[in-house]
Amino acid sequence: MSARRPSVRPRGAGPIGPAPLFAALGDETRLRLVARLCADGPLSIVRLTAGSGVTRQAIAKHLRVLAHAGVVRGIRHGRESVWELELRQVAEARRCLERISSQWDEVLGRLKTSVER
To answer: Mean pLDDT throughout 44-71?
Structure first.
């Protein structure tokens, strides 16, 4: 049995700031990969490539970008890597979006009050 070891980003590595995170998520293919991992759980590159219309090499490149941003990590299982979400980083993205949403709600509320005067 082979040892499990990270292929790109170590488990428990500290969170990355929001800019690289959102830059990584700004690509449609990477966003689809994250959505697929959210829905299906950890998957190999072969399974992530199936039905995507994107080459395995392109998927691997997108996964490396996501890993660098801390969104996913690859775990080697023999000759294959299985990719999974880094839940801490996904939670950080959610917190960031909630802060932005709250700020917009506040600004729109002030605008509404100003217009209604």
So the answer is: 93
pTM: 0.71
Q: Taking a C-beta distance cutoff of 8 angstroms, is the pair 95, 21 a contact?
A: no
Could you give the number of structural domains in the chain? 1
Residue 85 lies in a domain: yes
Q: Is residue 5 part of a domain?
A: no
As a whole number of angstroms, the distance between CA 107 and CA 110 comes to 5
Q: Please state, for a pLDDT cut of 90, what percent of the chain lies above it.
A: 46
Confidence class for position 6, pLDDT limits 50, 70, 90:
very low
Residue 11 lies in a domain: no
* Mean residue pLDDT across the chain: 84
DSSP strands (E only) in the chain: 5-6, 43-44, 72-77, 80-85
Provide the CB-side half-sphere exposure for 112 (13 A, CA).
6
User: 60 lies in which domain range?
Assistant: 17-116
